[in-house]
Amino acid sequence: xxxxxxxxxxxxxxxxxxxxxxxxxxxxxxxxxxxxxxxxxxxxxxxxxxxxxxxxxxxxxxxxxxxxxxxxxxxxxxxxxxxxxxxxxxxxxxxxxxxxxxxxxxxxxxxxxxxxxxxxxxxxxxxxxxxxxxxxxxxxxxxxxxxxxxxxxxxxxxxxxxxxxxxxxxxxxxxxxxxxxxxxxxxxxxxxxxxxxxxxxxxxxxxxxxxxxxxxxxxxxxxxxxxxxxxxxxxxxxxxxxxxxxxxxxxxxxxxxxxxxxxxxxxxxxxxxxxxxxxxxxxxxxxxxxxxxxxxxxxxxxxxxxxxxxxxxxxxxxxxxxxxxxxxxxxxxxxxxxxxxxxxxxxxxxxxxxxxxxxxxxxxxxxxxxxxxxxxxxxxxxxxxxxxxxxxxxxxxxxxxxxxxxxxxxxxxxxxxxxxxxxxxxxxxxxxxxxxxxxxxxxxxxxxxxxxxxxxxxxxxxxxxxxxxxxxxxxxxxxxxxxxxxxxxxxxxxxx
Length: 496
Hints:
Helix content: 55-70%
Number of domains: 2
Largest sheet: 2 strands, antiparallel
Number of strands: 4
Strand order of the largest sheet: 1-2
Order of helices and strands: HHHEEHHHHHHHHHHHHHHEEH
Number of helices: 18
Structural class: mainly alpha
């Protein structure tokens, strides 16, 4: 999917932006009939920015609460924990058995002689094994009950969590400050942030790799499941993930390429970008499954029974739970959430620069000199739009936006982009423009001509059919979204 769908559309967007040197809306002056593509990509970027920075706010909340001697999501003795909260690890079991004791759900050990390791009520139920269907990890309850203060349904909004609102304000202030002096200074910030994120990612992976059970997780990760190749929804999901990870069809690539030198070799850039994307995915996947393998070892649970979910569950429940079991866990937690904040802020800066530059390019006489005022207004507007995500039902709305925005609408936009450039503007004219910039036709010439004109549109239609055929009513945890919410989601998808 990366080579037959992802990189070709990335190449097209980079070439468009570099040749025209304008934003994602104005660039479609080459094909005025398809200017709506630019508007659609801008709307998608706006929606992603609103909810993406909410995830940054969660990460900032976690970061501040990691500055403690004991991580708050490592135990079941907090006021937000319920009866089902269970702490289980092999060390606790062996130590408790060695003292002829009984292990409780909350991780406390009661010795038969009435000596207690912790001052807990002896009437608490006994934990003989970790049943993932009945017991709840403390990191789950911390995220849902303390961080989100999550309600039971979408329309039960509740009150605003002002701690999250403050964290969200901090996130938007950082975005504003990083972009205040322009794209060059922002580029330096992104360079440092991404480099630091990769270093932390590698350090965490090496640390987890030294833990028992991590190799089992990696073996599970790298073991091919050939039956999945017959599942069309897998192909559709993989394609959507490729588009999202490459930031294609969001206008960002066009906007950033507009700042490149006219004769910059973007043909080389696409291969570097593709290799970086593959290596990052492999390293991130290895980190996740080494953590899962370690957790399954600690909980004495077969790795096939561990239900790994993408999104917030992975970032704020699974990995923090694994980190909480490490020695000097707060240090690793600080590193981990710094990495998450860096990654999200870098992505949001990328999209925000796209939005601001595109709007300024549309009204150059009025707004180009007032770039900072436009930036301040958009940051304030997006912060206001993000406030509802700070409520008790915020997670439900965020999942709704994430499910319907950066998914199949990106595929539709990719189809129309390829059709507009290849068939209306003309693929031969486009290749001539590329030759003008990089001083040679991208090799092999006939491959790119056939790829953009025939293969890409066909592949995009196939991917779209895979995604729609595999559609099923979605839910967050055990909550199934009502029909009106799903209809609203489809409406949001169709808006761009």
